[in-house]
Structure formats: structure tokens, C-alpha cells
Please model this.
Amino acid sequence: MSIYKQLANQFVEEIESGLRQEGGRMPSLRQLAKQQSVSMSTVVSCYQELESQGWILSRPQAGYFVAPRKPRHSTPEWAQFVSKVSNVTQSYPSHPSVQGPLGVSTTINDQQSVTELERSFRRSLKRLGDRLNHYPDTQGEPLLRQALATHFAKINLHFPAEQVVITAGCMSAIKAALESCSNEGDTIAISSPCFNGILELLGQMKRQIVEIPSLDDGIDLEQLETHLKHKRVDAAIFCTSHMNPQGINMSASQKQALANLANKYRVPIIEDDVYLELSYSDHTPLPAKYYDKGGYVLWCGSVSKSLSPSYRLGWCLPGRYLDVYKEKFTAASYGVALPTQLAVADFIDSGQYAKHVRHRRAKLLDLRRQYLDYLAEHLPAGVNISNPQGGMVLWLQVPGLDCEAFAIAVDQHKLDIRLGKLFSTLDLYRDCLRINIGYPLEGEAKRQLDILLTLINKHKS
Model:
């Protein structure tokens, strides 16, 4: 066997065994040639062999990376339909009374991050001084706004710190965005399926909705444009990176097209980007906001998924709606707790946040592998599972599921999962469900997953 094939087989073994993880950077051509004491032509042939077999992929001016694993299962088929205006007529709670590790989309911090966060809080408390007796700036602490601007500039998303508003989490940011660019009775375009928390919020705010079908690379932009062209939509809300609950990452071309539509028809689009930094590779995708030339995209984010939901800290870059956004947000809030803002700013500025995010990505990638392997081994044939490239949720589609009996059994076992009916006003996803994969597959998480697998096997015809 030739030297380059021997070297390629060695890499395949390392990838299959988990020594080289999906999205991980491969050695450069020069590094590998030096490490293995072989010629550049041998190294080039090795990488060409691995790339042709789908084990690695190249990124221009970045190098070679371990390619996403081929799924051992089929992925969900997205319901296609003609979207129409409808009302949110029932409750879509995002936090049911029974809570467990498979329900809420969350994960746990490692001890190193907790230690560094404690240090950031101690340093921030020393900085407070007599500001301890003052209310925080209603737009947000300038140090945190600048820290966010500097942080996101590293992925080529540039914005002035003065244009950011700090909020009490991403949902708070989205609510203020809706109040800034729409009124009661207006029609809001959303994806189908859509995060149930968004549906709940729209119902509470008495907005009508238009559900836009999902596609493998995002949403049906043709249908969205039809509604925009005929002025049937007043605004839109879309999760664009590692979409919840679908697990889809909207492609760069889709994000650009989405921003172009917002500017072409002068219709505000609220971008829910809470999962942006949880890509399984070391590459952070750019948001649709990056392509927004006229300020019609209101970009909302948070540290709830990337750091901790307990801080209730998010932000919005409202674009052309900045003045009215500040007015609406200030009317409903006196600002976010200053010690928390200062601590998170310190955590970002110290470099610990970027380090923490890298560790979280690697951990979530490993958890995704564990859950997908376990599901593929124990689920009956024909069940479709999403193959996300980021985030912390899986979307399961179970054709032939006795939906009513399954829902009753889930309730009887006090199992915390999210049934598909929670993610739409349409009767399209009753054979679907969403699970969180942010907890290690052990203890209570494994116990509940085993119960779920038993119920699926029992109620699937």
C-alpha cells in the first residue's frame, strides 16, 4: 500500500475512534509533511484521498477540517403547504410544570468556567463603587455593549456599541422588537415548525401569524416573498442559526436573501440568533444581520444558551428602529442588573468567554454523537432524526406513531419532552417531538430517554 493511503487510513481510524472530532482542524500541509517526514506531494495525495471519501473538507484560506459525520438514520421530511394567515388560539407554554433534562434546551457549565465566572463577578463588584446605589443605564452598561461589539467583530460582524440595547434575555429582546415594529392585529411571518415560546408570545401580544414551510437549508423564501409582495405580512421572526426546533442551520445564501427581502419590501425581520455561537465546528456562521444594508433586520441574541440562562441577559441590535426600540424597552423595564452586566463584560474581555464557548461547542458535539448513536441503536426502523450542525436539540419524526396514545403515555410517565403539536398552529407535526441533548447521557437523562424509547417502540405501528 502506498504511503499516502497508509497515512489516510491512519486519519480515518483517528476520526472513527473520536480522537479527531467533527469540525476539528487538520494539520496544515506543511505541518503534516514535517510531522511524518514525507514529501508535500504525499501529503497532498493523502488529503485529496480523504476529501474524496468525505472524511475531511477544505475551507478557502482556512485549511482542512474533519467533515460532519454521515448520519446512520434518515432526516425528517419537512411538511410542504400553502401558507395562510391564522391566529394563535391556544397556549404553547415553553416551560411546562414538569421539567427534566430532555425538555428545556440547556446544558451545564464545566467547573473551570464556573471558577472564572466567580472571578469575573468578584472583579465587577469592586468596580461598582458608589454605582451600587444607582439604577443601571436603561440601554445597557456601556462596558458590556463595547465588549459585545469587540467580541462579534472577530467574526466580521461590526457594529457601534452605541447601537446595542441590553435586555433581560433573548425573549425580552424579541418582545421589545415586536412592540417597536408591529401593532396588535398585525400579521407576523414565522417558520413552521417554530419555537413554542415565540408562538406563546405572539398569542399574548394578539398578533396573527403566517407559518412559512421549512426546507433543508432554511425556509421557503418564495412563499415569504409572495406574502411580502402582496403586503400580507407586517413583520417576521426567524431563528436563523441552528434553528429551534428543526436543527437546521439557514445557509449563508438564505440569510443574505432574507436580509435582501427585508430591505426590498421595507418590512422588519426580527432575527432570533440565540444559538449563533453553538456551532459544532470552530466556525461561527454570520447572521442575516451581516447582510442588512438598510437596518430592517433587528438582531436579537443572548448568553442564555452559550453561557447561562440564569443571568437573563440578552441584547438587540435594532437597526433603523433603535430610537423607538429604546423607548418601548425603557417603558417596560428599568434596565438589567448592573453587577451581572459588568461580570459578563469582564468574562468576555478577559478572553474566558471565547474559551468557554470553544469548550461548550466540543462538548455539545460529543453529546450529539452519543445521543444519535444511542437513538440509532434503539429506535425502530423508519424514525427520522435531524442532523444538526449546532445547538442542543434533536427533532424526531416518527411515521406511524399513535399520537394520542403516545401523548397520554408521556403525560402518565411525567416525561419532559416537547411534542410536535407545540410548534405550530397547524396539524402537521403530531408524529414529531423535540428533545434536548445538552446533558450527559447518564443518570436522569438516560433514564428518561430509555422511557421515551420504550414509548416510541410501543406506540409506533
